[in-house]
Structures are given as C-alpha cells and as structure tokens.
Specification:
- Belongs to the oxygen-dependent FAD-linked oxidoreductase family.
- The protein is of the alpha+beta class.
- The chain has helices at about 20-25, 60-75, 115-120, 135-145, 165-175, and strands at about 1-5, 10-15, 35-40, 50-55, 80-90, 95-105, 125-130, 130-135.
- Strands 4, 5, 6, 7 and 8 form a 5-stranded antiparallel sheet that branches. Strands 2-1-3 form a 3-stranded antiparallel sheet.
- The radius of gyration is 19 Å and the shape is globular.
C-alpha cells in the first residue's frame, strides 16, 4: 500500500484494491504521479543469501546484454534469482563499465547459483564481491559505493526485453554525459 498525495492535493491509498492503476504505475514510475508519504508492506525473516557485485569493462556489453535478455526470457526463470543489470560512467577513466548486482535468496548448496552461471563466466571481471552474507552486509557494501559528501543520480527504466534496445539506451545515456564529462569533480 502507498499513501499518496496527488497533484491536486487529495490523499489516497493506492494498492491492489484501491486505485490499482496508480499502484501499478508507482512500481517503477519514480514519483511522477504524486508524492508518496507512506509505504505499508509485509516483512519476513531473512537469513544469509548469495549475492554481490561484479564489475566488467564496457567491452563485455554485447555478451552482457545477450546474457541478460536470455535470463529474463527464460521459461525456467528461477524465482530466487534477482539481478540489477546496469551501466555506470566513471569520470576517472571517462568510460562506462557494466555493473551487475546479483541476489539469490535461497542459499545455494554449491559455490554459486546456476541461475547466474552465464554471467559468472563472462570475462574479464574488474572485481567480484559475490559471496554468502547477510542483508545488512550487502547494504553496507552498497553504501560504500556512495561516499559521504558526494552526490549521485540513480534512475531506473523499464522497457521491452531487448539487447538491441539496451545498446540504444546506452548510446542515449552516453550522449547526455558527453557535454559534462570534463566538469571538475564529477
């Protein structure tokens, strides 16, 4: 459930039964539909799980996007597997890198879950933090990527599962970086 202040000032609860279209739109729509003032959700106990980040050079992009689209399109998609597949521009090298954040919420009986085996085979890897750890350990790792006193922009986009479109999307993102890439301190 989301409690939302709509643009005209009315306060509503958006959930599966009340304002279901707004509820669906708020899942991934940023805050373009109102200001969310409260979240209500169920919690559950969580033990250690497998996860972490793997950073790759942008030269692996084609293999990455093909692997990602295959994972998402698989009729045997593992419900315990979650992957945030992203690209990051680094001002130090003035280049893009591929960043995959993996989570597998059922502790695997082997060193890594089969759901991510195709990603784990991609080389070269700049660094790899995958391991079995607690939710708070992974949160602390994520926090280290945003140093205090620095700002960053983290946005998401949802679109059709297409390696070709992901390539176009990166081209668009790169075109927005180029005008500011030489600004000191970025």
């Amino acid at each position: 459930n989301y409690e939302v202040v709509l643009p005209h000032g009315k306060i509503v609860n958006a959930n599966a039964n009340s304002h279901p279209d707004l509820f669906l739109a708020l899942k991934g729509g940023s805050n373009n539909f109102g200001i969310v003032t409260r979240f209500d959700f169920k919690t559950f106990a969580s033990g250690p799980f497998w996860g972490g980040n793997i950073y790759y050079p942008i030269t692996t992009m084609k293999e990455q996007t093909n692997t990602f689209t295959s994972l998402v399109a698989s009729p045997d998609y593992d419900p315990y597997a979650a992957l945030i597949h992203s690209y990051a521009y680094t001002s130090e090298s003035q280049s893009w890198i591929v960043v995959n954040n993996h989570q597998y919420t059922k502790v695997p009986t082997v060193s890594s879950p089969a759901a991510f085996s195709d990603f784990l085979r991609i080389e070269p890897q700049l660094f790899n933090t995958t391991r079995v750890a607690t939710y708070s350990d992974f949160t602390a790792e994520f926090d280290l990527e945003s140093p205090a006193g620095r700002r960053n922009i983290f946005r998401t986009s949802t679109f059709v599962n297409s390696a070709a479109y992901m390539s176009v999307y990166l081209d668009i993102a790169n075109s927005t970086v180029q005008p500011i890439r030489n600004v000191a301190g970025l």
